[in-house]
Amino acid sequence: MSGTEKLPMFVIGKSAQPCCFKNVKSLPTTYKANKNAWMTSEIFTERVRKLDSDMTRNQRSIMLIVDNCPAHPKINGLKSVKLVFLPPNSTSVTQPMDQGVIRNLKVHYRKQVITRKIRALDNGTDMCINVLDALRMLHQAWGCVTQATITNCYRRAGFKACEEQVPVPVPLPETDSEEIDDDISLAHLSRLIKGATMEQYVDVDIQVPTCEEENERRRRGNHGGGTAATKSGVCIECV
User: Per-domain residue ranges for the chain?
Assistant: First the structure.
């Protein structure tokens, strides 16, 4: 809740061994892969058990707040991690990450993408971002998400410490003091996106499914069988 500690980024891609990983000794984030780049119950269970082992070794106990979906099953035998499942269909209101943390991460990430594009245009070269580049950019973007942003988002989701009672709005960042090439403001970058606002650019992948259930809901929604749920396309963990 305090935002003082963030777990490393956990990224799921489609290729188990992208060419860009060749001769790379360590990755800036944890990386897993499957054909759809989805979170699965197997990946989730492996991730939580690894975290539980780390916390037990460090003599710590934590609680993880997770969505109630098939990709997030109950896990027996945990010693140092307690899973707290949100009520069904309440993620947009009760999940702290959906209150602005994920969107803030995307702003920092997409600003790096546009900055690279500008650099390429200035140099007369083509811009190419491979998986390793994306992991590095995500790692940097996650580092730019501030403690204040995380704390405020927990408040907005209804999580309050005894001395904290009033939620604080979480606006789009106007400056990113920790980021490279920060002389380019978001306002200027947004003018470079033809036919779209910065907000639309940040949310361009908001309907991308991140697990099988979401994909099925969207498929039914697109065919009149129901309303597709709105998700963020990104899963982030905080302690």
Answer: 10-222
> Distance between CA atoms of 136 and 113, rounded to whole angstroms?
12
Look at the block and give the residue holding tokens 């033809």.
194
The pair of three-digit structure tokens given for residue 159, joined into one six-digit string: 């999580």
CA dist 139 and 30 (Å) reads 10
φ and ψ at residue 44, rounded to 5 degrees: -60, -45
Residue type at 115 in one-letter notation:
T
Consecutive 10-residue averages of pLDDT for the chain (239 residues): 86 94 95 93 96 96 88 95 90 87 92 90 90 96 94 88 51 41 49 63 70 57 36 44
Nearest by Cα to 133 from 17, 20, 233, 236: 20
**Residue 211 DSSP code:** S
pTM, to two decimals: 0.73
Confirm if 178 and 111 have CB atoms less than 8 A apart.
Answer: no
**Do residues 234 and 106 lie in contact, with contact meaning Cβ atoms separated by under 8 Å?**
yes
CA distance 113 to 202: 11
Which residues make Cβ contacts (< 8 Å) with residue 181, sequence separation at least 6? Answer: 115, 119
Question: Is there a contact between 67 and 91 (Cβ–Cβ < 8 Å)?
Answer: yes
CB 108 within 8 A of CB 145: yes
Q: Are 211 and 70 in contact (CB under 8 A)?
A: yes
How far is residue 233 from each of residues 77, 139, 212, measured CA to CA in Å?
Answer: 29, 16, 13
Residue 224 DSSP one-character state: T
What are the percentages of helix, strand and coil residues in the chain, rounded to 5? Answer: 40, 10, 50
φ, ψ for residue 18 (rounded to 5)?
-60, 150
